[in-house]
Specification:
Blueprint (H helix, E strand, L loop, with lengths): L3 E4 L3 E9 L4 E5 L4 E2 L4 E11 L3 E7 L3 E4 L6 E3 L3 E5 L2 E4 L6 E6 L5 E11 L8 E12 L5 E12 L3 E5 L5 E4 L11 E2 L4 E7 L3 E6 L9 E10 L2 E4 L4 E3 L4 E7 L14 E10 L10 E4 L3 E6 L1
Antiparallel strand pairs: 1-15, 2-14, 3-5, 4-5, 5-12, 6-11, 6-13, 7-8, 7-13, 9-10, 9-12, 13-14, 15-18, 16-25, 17-24, 18-24, 19-23, 19-26, 20-22, 20-24, 21-23
Length: about 300
């Protein structure tokens, strides 16, 4: 039976005022909606209307940056403001006017908008942020500005998918007196790895039954974002934890369709080392646990 070890964490988004201004401030309301390719946040703008108000926005920086790894950047042009059914692309080159208030009476007004980050794909873990500058221009031509940090956190995400089942070793009549050679599994175990961080792959032998022989495993092949792996036969003992491989995030950039999973193929071996006994023929079956975590 195939097994899946899935360690998932959530994507959390939060926003804050960088420079609180009682005459004009932006605050997030409710919880954001997050999907694989988009982030959507609901924002309340509170401003003082004095005659005609014209609301604008621009980004201070050209990128939404990963604070832990500044080389990971999302172009700020992927960020849009939604107001009254219309969509406005945010840039850092100029203010983008998105609302003109003709109707509300003078005084404090609240306007609801949305911020939507589009076409981001899966992202490496970390905190992402960009500083936005909102502007309210009144009839006299004076501006009131409010700075606002748009931030979101991508937590660790690790997934192992079994492309084959548990290791099965079949002993024939020719194998029961074999004291020297390894008896290999009928088909190798192949793991598909997804991780948005540098990762470590562990093998845990808590379910290993090892009363009549010795078990070994060996990584036969590793592709994708692999940094290192053990190329030797690893002798397996019950209730142990073995480091099999380390790797880099299985993500290729920040665009949609950026997944480049890593594959690891493992061969399991069985050996009788007791010259005074023989091994009963039949099927040898063991289940192993694999753990994928941040390096």
């Amino acid at each position: 039976m195939k097994k899946f070890l899935i360690l998932l964490t959530t994507l959390i988004l939060f926003c804050s005022n960088a420079n609180a201004n009682p005459a004009f401030r932006a605050e997030m309301s409710g919880f954001p909606f997050v999907s694989e390719n988009n982030v959507l946040a609901n924002i309340n703008l509170n401003y003082i209307k004095n005659g005609l108000s014209k609301l604008s926005v621009m980004a201070v920086d050209p990128y939404i940056s990963n604070n832990e790894n500044p080389s990971i950047k999302i172009p700020v042009e992927n960020l849009y403001l939604l107001c009254d059914g219309k969509e406005f692309q945010i840039t850092n080159s100029s203010q983008r006017q998105f609302f003109i208030d003709y109707q509300n009476p003078e005084g404090t007004v609240q306007k609801n908008i949305n911020l939507r980050l589009e076409n981001i794909g899966e992202l490496p873990a970390g905190t992402y942020s960009v500083l936005l500058r909102f502007s309210n221009k009144n009839e006299a031509g004076s501006d009131v500005e409010s700075e606002f940090f748009f931030n979101f956190i991508v937590n660790d995400k690790h997934i192992i998918t079994f492309l084959t089942g548990d290791p099965l070793i079949v002993l024939s009549e020719d194998d029961i007196f074999n004291k020297q050679s390894y008896i290999r599994n009928k088909s190798d175990v192949r793991l598909n790895i997804f991780s948005n961080t540098n990762w470590k792959l562990w093998l845990v032998t808590s379910k290993l039954e090892n009363d009549e022989c010795e078990y070994y495993c060996q990584i036969k092949n590793a592709t994708g974002k692999i940094k290192s792996f053990d190329r030797n036969n690893i002798k397996l003992l019950p209730d142990k934890r073995y480091l099999l491989a380390t790797g880099e995030p299985t993500l290729d950039g920040i665009c949609t369709g950026n997944k480049t999973p890593s594959d690891i193929t493992i061969e399991y071996l069985f050996k009788n080392t007791n010259s005074d006994s023989y091994i009963k023929e039949g099927l040898k079956h063991n289940s192993f646990t694999y753990i994928l975590e941040r390096e």
